[in-house]
Amino acid sequence: MKPGTIQPIQPNRPVFDETFRQHFENLLKWRRDVRSFRPDPVDARLLEHLICLASLAPSVGYSQPWRFVLVESPECRESIRANFEKCNRDALNSYAGEKARLYASLKLAGLRDAPVQLAIFLSQKTHHGSGLGRFTMPETLEYSAVLAVHTLWLASRTYGLGLGWVSILDPVEVNRGLNIPHDWKLIAYLCIGYPKEDNSSPELFRRGWEETLPIRQMIVKR
Q: Is 85 helix (H, G, I), strand (E, B) or coil?
């Protein structure tokens, strides 16, 4: 084939047309951090399928460093709730005035409502990938696990599920409470279920916690 010519589309290659692009754009807009869940159960087969989709995320050196822990026992869930409540009190005490009042009014976790609780860890000592791509930026291993979280988030939304990322936790206590190997690093603790309401704008924006930055403020040219 001569240089500059357009390579023909392979027969088995999918075509992402304008309709698909519009659906994908809507998916990005309607992916929200959910804090209020309905009690409806999530089918175990669907959850396994979503984890399989999350594992399609890119990873540095094809290391696949993510580890998924389904938190199901009452004892483990209670340890997470106690962890959150302590950390949440400390976080509240770090604010003052109107920010403290607004923080106290936010529902920051679905730990009592969400039917599924899923912790995603990073296997820091994984030999998979043989270290490829991590020599100068070892943190790309963590980025890979975060990409798995984001992939799971989008995939869950396509099935009508919401996902809430609980970050107000002490990671060391999470490992201890779930009896997780010490060399696994907590990346995300997720609440998953069917949301009580849907909205295309962030709740923290609607509640006046923060404004949306203009896109031009986030683009730098050199």
A: helix
Amino acid of residue 161:
L
Side chain identity, residue 174: V
For the record, the structure tokens of 42 come out as: 């999530």
- The structural domains of the chain, ordered by start, are 42-195 (3.40.109.10)
Q: Are 79 and 177 in contact (CB under 8 A)?
A: yes
Decide: helix, strand or coil at residue 74.
helix
Distance CA 114, CA 31 (A): 17
Token code pair at residue 193: 């279920």
Cα–Cα distance measured from residue 84 to residue 171, given in angstroms and rounded to the nearest whole number: 10
Full-model pTM:
0.90
Task: Confirm if 144 and 58 have CB atoms less than 8 A apart.
Answer: yes
Task: State the residue for tokens 């309905």.
Answer: 38
d(CA 183, CA 201): 37
Looking at residue 118, its pLDDT comes to: 98
Token readout for 16 is 């992402």
Q: Mean pLDDT for each consecutive 10-residue tract of the chain (222 residues)?
A: 59 90 96 93 98 98 98 97 96 94 85 96 95 95 98 98 96 97 96 93 88 94 95
